[in-house]
Amino acid sequence: MISRWPVLTVFGVLAVSLPSLAQSSAALPPGMHGGPRPHDPVRELTHLTQALDLTAEQQTQIKPILEDRDTQMQTLHENSSLSRQESMAKAKGILDQSDSAIEAVLNSEQKAKFEKQRAMHAQMTHRHDNTWRPDGTPEPDGAGPPGGDGPPPDGPPGI
Q1: Which of 23-27, 126-130, 141-145, 151-155 has maximum average pLDDT?
Q2: C-alpha–C-alpha distance, residues 42 and 63, integer Å
Q3: Per residue in 39-50, pLDDT tens?
Q4: How high is the pLDDT of residue 28?
Q5: How far is Cα of residue 27 from the mean position of the Cα atoms in its chain?
Q6: Per-position DSSP letters for the chain, written without gaps between them
Q7: Least confident of 38-47, 64-73, 94-103, 120-129
Q8: Residue from 126, 119, 154 nearest 9 by CA
Q9: Residue boundaries of the structural domains of the chain
Q10: Is residue 88 classed exposed, middle or buried when 0-12, 13-18 and 19+ CB atoms within 10 A define those classes?
Q11: What does the pLDDT average to over 149-156?
């Protein structure tokens, strides 16, 4: 089974940053916001439809799953009483549940593509995570944790 822990780290960062984003977009005119939500159900359904060649019936079945996930994630992000770890654990549960529900609608070929997509996303997220310290603060430019993607400790080659 593919680990979704790196994906949850991103949601943890979003959970911490969403209140400040909400404040900055509060000054925008009515109907405007600071950009699309990270997991906008309509955009994600469009992406899944193209990537997995979903039928109209599958789209009809998956859309409410994505909408429910979005609602649950928004509620979770608005809940300031949870610690970061609690929030991340709940987000993992929401994602696992929605992924399982989506997979139940897919045929075997689509499931394989879906799982491959999730693996690639997790891998990209893990690469991004290597630029963050365990306390949630960014590493200085070019530096990363041991074994990360940053340059060697003595600087880039040729210097």
Answers
A1: 126-130
A2: 8
A3: 689 999 999 999
A4: 39
A5: 26
A6: ----HHHHHHHHHHHHHHHHHHHHHTTSPTT--SS--TT-HHHHHHHHHHHHT--HHHHHHHHHHHHHHHHHHHHHHH-TTS-HHHHHHHHHHHHHHHHHHHHHHS-HHHHHHHHHHHHHHHHHHHHHHTTB-TTSPBPPTT--STTSSSPPTT-STT-
A7: 120-129
A8: 126
A9: 5-18+38-129
A10: buried
A11: 48
CA distance 119 to 123: 6
Say yes or no to pLDDT of 10 above 80.
no
Q: What are phi and psi of 148, to 5 degrees?
A: -80, -165
Q: Are 76 and 15 in contact, with CB atoms under 8 Å apart?
A: yes
